Amino acid sequence: MCGRYANSKSSPSMAALFDAADLVAGAWRPSYNIAPTATAPLVRRSKSRDERVIELARWGLVPPWASDPGVGVRMFNARIETVATSRAYKRPFASRRALVPADGWYEWRKLPGGGKQPYFFTRPGGVVFAGLWDTWHQGDLNLMTFTVLTCPAQGEAMATVHDRMPYVLAPERFSAWLGEEDAEAAELLAGPAPSLADELEIRKVGRAVGRAGNDGPELVRQVGDEGDAATLPGL
């Protein structure tokens, strides 16, 4: 599952990183607490422009056949096990794949005595999620939306917090995911590189991230003793 993530990058920096045209300009304000239904940047291949572009889209995919855009509230994640055959996702998986830039993501671990403790998963330079995008139209309303793919958690430490994680793509797989080179579905959905679990830093963070209205770099900072996260199995 991926229900919250951070992206502190500016649109010009993302344009340079992904060699993409910046169609966001000043409309994006970096956020450390992106929640479903929020608007966030994605990178896709534009057929009309014949280049990569960075655009803003609403998190929570709304299929073209949906009667109401509210269905996107429930469709912020798509499972790699079923994305190629699901009624909602098989069309965008075939031709509307996107990259979702992020610093990292949050997961909550259930505590034995009740309540949940949030953790932030990150690595130097950030991560890129495999995503899908689609458009929904009704009257004069044109809505671009996206979803983040998820897969089984990698490594004992990660699985201790949550059994699933966002599908993180390595840079060498960006072109195939965007449809710039041929690739079979099995190759596209092979899952993250095996080395990812060893590259990630898992930080115990404050519970303020649980409120969608909270934002700022303090949300991703380690709380408690420096060794807190290392008490998780596998670290």
How would you explain this protein's 3D organization?
By secondary structure, this protein is mainly beta. The protein has a single domain (5-231), classed as hypothetical protein yedk fold. It has helices spanning 11-18, 90-95, 156-161, 174-177, 185-188, 196-199; strands spanning 5-7, 21-22, 31-34, 39-46, 51-59, 77-79, 97-110, 116-138, 141-152, 164-166, 201-204. A hairpin with a 2-residue loop joins strand 8 (116-138) and strand 9. The longest helix is centred in the N-terminal third of the chain and has 8 residues, at 11-18. The protein is globular. The two termini are 21 Å apart.
Give me some keywords for this one.
hypothetical protein yedk fold; 11-stranded mixed beta sheet; 36% strand; 235 residues; 14% helix; mainly beta; 11 strands; 6 helices
Strands, helices and their partners?
Elements: E1 5-7, H1 11-18, E2 21-22, E3 31-34, E4 39-46, E5 51-59, E6 77-79, H2 90-95, E7 97-110, E8 116-138, E9 141-152, H3 156-161, E10 164-166, H4 174-177, H5 185-188, H6 196-199, E11 201-204
Parallel strand pairs: 2-5, 5-9, 6-9
Antiparallel strand pairs: 1-3, 1-7, 4-5, 7-8, 8-9, 8-11, 9-10
